[in-house]
Amino acid sequence: MTRSELRRIQWRGVLALTHREVVRRVLRLWPQTIAPQVIVAVLFVVVFGVALGSQIRTVNGVPYQEFVVPGLTLMGVSTAAFANNSTSLYQARSDGFIEDPVSSPMTSAQLTLAYTIGGVARGLIIGIMTLATARAFVGFPFEHPLLTLYVLTCASLTFTGLGNVVGLYSRGWELQAFVGNIIIQPLVFLGGVFYSIAALQSPWRGISHADPILYMVEGTRHGILGTSDLSLFASLGVTTGLAVIMMAWSWWVFDRGVGLRT
User: Fold this and answer.
1) For position 53, what pLDDT does the model report?
2) Residue 211 belongs to a domain
3) What value does the mean pLDDT take over residues 58-86?
């Protein structure tokens, strides 16, 4: 077999695995994988806007209903990307399906790529649909669409990478539940989704600055509304750095064969 033939076989495997992750797991199961999180995010926008809008007219000059949209979008993207890959990989290991792609000629980088595309696709679909639906209710401006897409893509990569790692290390559902409920959810709610960190007093403001999700939320907020509590440079730097780190960690775990070989 020539090198070009081997590469052709490898990339056919990548396409087949990507098709399984995106089409068969995300798109065909959209009532489970997409619709619930979009509905929850929109309900947050409507309920919080109605309930608190009369008490909190504006935040940093932005109507409260509009202010919460970026954070809720980021929340949906991050939780969906993590849940997608942590669940997919753990189930593939439990059902024995993972043996097929692992025994194929695909490299660890190609395995990482195929699974990552599935998580990023689900995260971005939920993010875009949340923004479109929320805009129909709230009618917020959209200042920098490309910047927003970049930040949401980096966030999807970050939490997809984390999902890959957790899915490969898991020996049961406990680790996934712990990371999702005890680590990600608190960080999301402390990341300025529902409030401006400028209103916080010490030491809570300092604690919030140590929250990596804050930088993703503020980057998304700058992209959508054109305003942010943090500098755009800081938001993009942390968001990009986290995506690179998590993707590198994800590849390393695949390359070491963690959870893939007995």
Assistant:
1) 61
2) yes
3) 90
Lookup result for tokens 């070989």? 261
User: Which residues are registered as beta bridge partners of 252?
Assistant: none
Question: How many degrees, rounded to 5, is the angle at CA 188 between CA 79 and CA 21?
Answer: 15
Residue 40 lies in a domain: yes
Computed over its alpha carbons, how large is the radius of gyration of the chain?
19
The total number of structural domains in the chain stands at 1
DSSP the chain: --HHHHHHHHHHHHHHHHHIIIIIIIITTHHHHTHHHHHHHHHHHHHHHHHHHTT--EETTEEHHHHHHHHHHHHHHHHHHHHHHHHHHHHHHHHTTTHHHHHSS--HHHHHHHHHHHHHHHHHHHHHHHHHHHHHHH----S-HHHHHHHHHHHHHHHHHHHHHHHHH-SSSHHHHHIIIIIIHHHHHTTTSSS-GGGPPTTHHHHHHT-HHHHHHHHHHHHHHS--SS-HHHHHHHHHHHHHHHHHHHHHHHHHTTTT--
CA atoms within 13 A on the CB side of 232: 13
Locus of tokens 């077999």: 1
Q: Taking 90 as the threshold, does the pLDDT of residue 59 lie above it?
A: no
Q: What domain range is 86 assigned to?
A: 3-256
Q: How far is CA 144 from the centre of its chain?
A: 19
Is 261 among the domain residues?
no
Would 262 be classed as within a structural domain? no
Burial of 175: CB neighbours in 10 Å, binned 0-12, 13-18, 19+: middle
Q: pLDDT digit string (tens) for 164-188? A: 999 999 988 899 999 999 999 999 9
